[in-house]
Amino acid sequence: MDLESPDAVPYFNWDAPVTNAEVRRALATGSEDDKIYWIARIMREARYDDVWKYVSLRDDVLPRWQDIEPHLGRWQDKWRFLIEGFVERGLV
Q: How many Å apart are CA 76 and CA 73, to the nearest integer?
């Protein structure tokens, strides 16, 4: 459950021993495909409040939304509803 320690494996990486440091590095300096993969994985597997500890809606999610959305699995409708609501209400 440790999302801060660089050496800890976050709970949303339940199937791969990838540490917080590795996830944050991929989000910061990885290829565009790496960023899309990790953003979608975090949005799909992490708790809602924890998503925002890794990514920014305005800076990370919205600019890549078209590429992220197809990778959200069963959570795709939930995220679409939330993001469309944020945009429609002028919250982002």
A: 6
How many CB atoms neighbour CB 11 within 10 A?
13
Handedness of CA 5, 78, 92, 28 (dihedral sign): positive
Render each residue's pLDDT in the chain as its tens digit; 92 residues.
788 889 899 999 988 899 999 999 999 999 999 999 999 999 999 999 999 999 999 999 999 999 999 999 999 999 999 999 999 999 88
Return the domain boundaries, the chain.
Answer: 11-88
Q: What is the pTM of this model?
A: 0.92
φ, ψ at 24 (rounded to 5°): -65, -35
Token pair for 85 = 């609501």
Q: First and final CA of the chain: distance in angstroms? A: 29
